Amino acid sequence: MPEITVDMIKELRTRTGAGMMDCKRALEETSGDMEKAIDYLRKKGLAQAAKKASRSAEEGVIEAYIHHNARVGVLLELKCETDFVARTDQFKELAREIAMHIAWANPQYISKEDVPREEVEREENIEKERARAEGKPEAVLDKIVQGRLSKFYERVCLLEQPFIKDGSRKVRDIIAEKIAVLGENIVVGRFARFELGGQ
Predict the structure, then answer these.
(1) Alpha-carbon gap, residue 61 to 100, rounded angstroms
(2) In sequence order, what DSSP letters do the residues of 131-171 get, joined into one string?
(3) How much is the pTM?
């Protein structure tokens, strides 16, 4: 196994924001492969985030973002567990990045669970009829509809959207990674997006 140097640990910490010992362990587990170590920490972070998801988040910030053309603005409530974390630069930066993402991607809902059932059913019916019109076999219609429904959720749900700064990760992954770093549950409370001349 290659030697795990302090410089390697520092680089991994800079790139992920994880603790020094976690970075050392990740590099040891992946034989010093930096990219695999990053993946290792991300997976670990997602597992930690799942454990923290049930904890109450009543502190946080209201982030206001106005796009540079002054035609789009966003108000976002991002919540965490303590005032201490709410005041950290990392938490504030996350709030700003999510607000910027909302300005760009224009989600309608926070999560899949927020989409009204009748809207989901309407979308399912449209996609089923579309698949039939394309001549798809009846036996695979449900599978096709579920795949297309995932794309629908990506369009309308903030947490399901590919993140503006890194399309390989969804907004929920970005939040989960920050939960792992900051050690607290983080929740999008609500948001409002305003566009000049919009409804």
Answers:
(1) 15
(2) HHHTT--GGGHHHHHHHHHHHHHHHHBGGGSEETTEEEEEH
(3) 0.69
User: Alpha-carbon dihedral of residues 40, 44, 50, 52, nearest 10 degrees?
Assistant: -150
CA dist 91 and 70 (Å) reads 25
At 58, is the secondary structure helix, strand, or coil?
coil
Determine the Cα–Cα distance for residues 70 and 81; give it in Å rounded to an integer.
33
45: CB partners within 8 A, 6+ apart: 18, 176, 177, 179, 180, 181
Tokens (6 digits) for 168: 């390989």
Domains contained in the chain, CATH given: 6-52 (1.10.8.10), 59-110+157-195 (3.30.479.20), 116-155 (1.10.286)
User: Are 103 and 74 in contact, with CB atoms under 8 Å apart?
Assistant: yes
Q: Greatest CA span in the chain, whole angstroms?
A: 61
Question: How would you write the pLDDT of the chain (199 residues) with one tens digit per residue?
Answer: 578 888 888 887 777 666 677 788 888 888 888 888 878 877 776 555 555 556 667 789 999 999 888 899 999 999 998 899 999 999 999 999 999 999 999 999 999 899 999 998 998 888 888 888 887 877 777 888 888 888 999 999 999 999 999 888 899 989 988 888 888 889 999 999 999 876 5
The residue type of 128 is K
Structure tokens at 109: 């809902």
